[in-house]
C-alpha cells in the first residue's frame, strides 16, 4: 500500500467513524471564526492581524481537514504565527469554549469529540509555545498567565 493509499484509508475510516466531511469542516470553520470575530476578547486580536478573511478561512479549512481527516491539505507552520500574539491561558480557554460551542451546533457527537480532542491538544501545544517564547517553561498542568507574568497550576 502506498502512502497516498494509506492516507485515503485513514481518512475513510475517520469519516465512517465520525461522519466528518469537508462540508462539515467548512461549516464549522466559518461559523467558529464568525464567533471569534465578534468576541470581545479574541476579536480585536484577530482584527489587528487579518484584514482579508477569505484566505484565512480557506487556510483554516485546509488545516482542520488535515487535523481531523488526515487529508494532508494544510502545508503551513502555525506555531511561528502564534508565538508573537498577546495571548495566554485565558485566550486559549476562550478559543476552546467558542470552538466547543460551535462544534456542538454543527457536528454530531462522534464528530464533536473528534474535533474537540484535537482542538484541546492544539490549544495546549500553542499555549506551551507562547509561554516558551515569553521565557516561561511550563510544567505539567501549569498554565501561562501573561498579565501576571507567572505560571499557575
Main β-sheet, in a few words?
A: 2 strands, antiparallel
- Termini separation (Å)? 46 Å
Domain count: 1
Low-confidence stretches: none
Give the overall shape, derived from the CA principal axes. Answer: globular
Strand content: under 5%
Task: Look at the helices and sheets and give the structural class.
Answer: mainly alpha
Would you list the SSEs in sequence order as H and E? HHHHHHHEE
Architecture in CATH?
Orthogonal Bundle
CATH superfamily: Globins
**What would CATH call the class?**
Mainly Alpha
Radius of gyration: 16 Å
DSSP strand tally: 2
- Percent of residues in helices comes to 55-70%
Mean pLDDT across the residues is: 93
- Total helical elements: 7
CATH topology-level name: Globin-like
- Give the strand order, joined by hyphens, for the main sheet: 1-2
Explain what you see.
- With 153 residues, the chain is mainly alpha-helical.
- The protein has one domain (3-152): Globins (Globin-like, Orthogonal Bundle), CATH 1.10.490.
- The protein is 67% helix and 4% strand.
- It is built from seven helices and two strands, in the order αααααααββ.
- The protein has helices at residues 3-18, 22-38, 43-47, 53-69, 78-82, 89-106, 109-133; strands at 143-145, 150-152.
- Strands 1-2 form a two-stranded antiparallel sheet.
- Strand 1 and strand 2 (150-152) form a beta hairpin.
- Helix 2 (22-38) packs across helix 4 and helix 6 (89-106) packs antiparallel against helix 7.
- The longest helix has 25 residues, at 109-133.
- It is globular, with a radius of gyration of 16 Å.
- The protein starts with a helix and ends with a strand.
